[in-house]
């Protein structure tokens, strides 16, 4: 399940914790959200596991025909493993940051239910990426029982004290019901104005005076095999972005091979001198 090109809305990532919360409204809105996702023929990406509000969204969407992908760090599997009954696919990753990156790669939009610190980590990470113009995917807050009022108050406080620009509030689409929030997310249209920042990863060889720029790179771990095969490379990364990796129009592995060939030629010429 990959993110849909051309801004077509198909895959939605829902994030929450492994708990059900204090109030019945949290449970009710999670079930409503799963049902609404399936009714709109959307597919679900979520944080993996089979507990808490995530479980309710997962089951409500899956039994009504949505494709489901759970993304969970290996160390958390014992805490939230999927049940014996089939409830979609599961992708096991190495760490929390990789989980956020894979969620980003597979989703067209995000909904945050009431959740825990890991939920807030993903919220802040994705909002930061949007603020820095790394992506333009919509971020929704399902503000049931005014759960996210405190977060919005913090944003206002940071804006008032000139630590966050006032337009940062536009990064978040907020609603109190599942259907209202899905309507707003599906109506969202990203800005056509290009961002002021141009992101890239630089792969730098320590042993030679050469730099290769990887334009619009993804999660470098996806291409780690190309680096592991070249032990003479030492890699320094300035940036980390979940988009397609290219080096001057060719694959990362070919780019590294080309760089090593140039380096080898330089070494040979140095020895001949």
UniProtKB/TrEMBL annotation:
<keyword id="KW-0203">Cytokinin biosynthesis</keyword>
<dbReference type="InterPro" id="IPR031100">
    <property type="entry name" value="LOG_fam"/>
</dbReference>
<keyword id="KW-0378">Hydrolase</keyword>
<comment type="function">
    <text>Cytokinin-activating enzyme working in the direct activation pathway. Phosphoribohydrolase that converts inactive cytokinin nucleotides to the biologically active free-base forms.</text>
</comment>
<comment type="similarity">
    <text>Belongs to the LOG family.</text>
</comment>
<dbReference type="GO" id="GO:0016799">
    <property type="term" value="F:hydrolase activity, hydrolyzing N-glycosyl compounds"/>
</dbReference>
<dbReference type="InterPro" id="IPR005269">
    <property type="entry name" value="LOG"/>
</dbReference>
<dbReference type="GO" id="GO:0005634">
    <property type="term" value="C:nucleus"/>
</dbReference>
<dbReference type="Pfam" id="PF03641">
    <property type="entry name" value="Lysine_decarbox"/>
</dbReference>
<dbReference type="GO" id="GO:0009691">
    <property type="term" value="P:cytokinin biosynthetic process"/>
</dbReference>
<protein>
    <recommendedName>
        <fullName>Cytokinin riboside 5'-monophosphate phosphoribohydrolase</fullName>
        <ecNumber>3.2.2.n1</ecNumber>
    </recommendedName>
</protein>
<dbReference type="GO" id="GO:0005829">
    <property type="term" value="C:cytosol"/>
</dbReference>
């Amino acid at each position: 399940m990959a993110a849909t090109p051309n801004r077509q809305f198909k895959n939605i990532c829902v994030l929450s914790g492994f708990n059900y919360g204090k109030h019945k409204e949290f449970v009710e809105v999670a079930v409503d959200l799963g049902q609404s996702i399936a009714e709109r023929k959307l597919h679900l990406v979520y944080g993996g596991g089979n507990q808490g509000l995530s479980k309710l969204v997962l089951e409500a969407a899956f039994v009504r025909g949505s494709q489901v992908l759970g993304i969970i760090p290996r160390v958390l599997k014992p805490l939230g493993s999927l049940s014996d009954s089939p409830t979609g696919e599961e992708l096991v990753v190495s760490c929390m940051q990789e989980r956020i990156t894979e969620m980003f790669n597979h989703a067209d939009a995000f909904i945050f239910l009431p959740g825990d610190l890991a939920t807030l980590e993903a919220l802040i990470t994705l909002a930061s990426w949007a603020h820095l113009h790394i992506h333009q995917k919509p971020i929704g807050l399902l503000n049931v029982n005014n759960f996210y009022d405190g977060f919005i108050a913090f944003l206002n406080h940071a804006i008032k004290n000139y630590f966050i620009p006032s337009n940062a509030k536009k990064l978040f689409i907020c609603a109190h019901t599942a259907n209202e929030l899905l309507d707003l997310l599906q109506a969202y249209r990203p800005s056509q104005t290009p961002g002021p920042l141009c992101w890239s990863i630089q792969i730098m060889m320590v042993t030679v005076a050469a730099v290769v720029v990887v334009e619009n790179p993804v999660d470098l771990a996806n291409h780690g095999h190309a680096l592991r095969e070249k032990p003479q490379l030492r890699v320094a990364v300035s940036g980390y972005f979940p988009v397609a990796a290219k080096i001057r129009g060719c694959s990362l592995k070919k780019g590294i091979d080309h760089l090593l060939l140039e380096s080898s030629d330089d070494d040979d010429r140095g020895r001949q001198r």
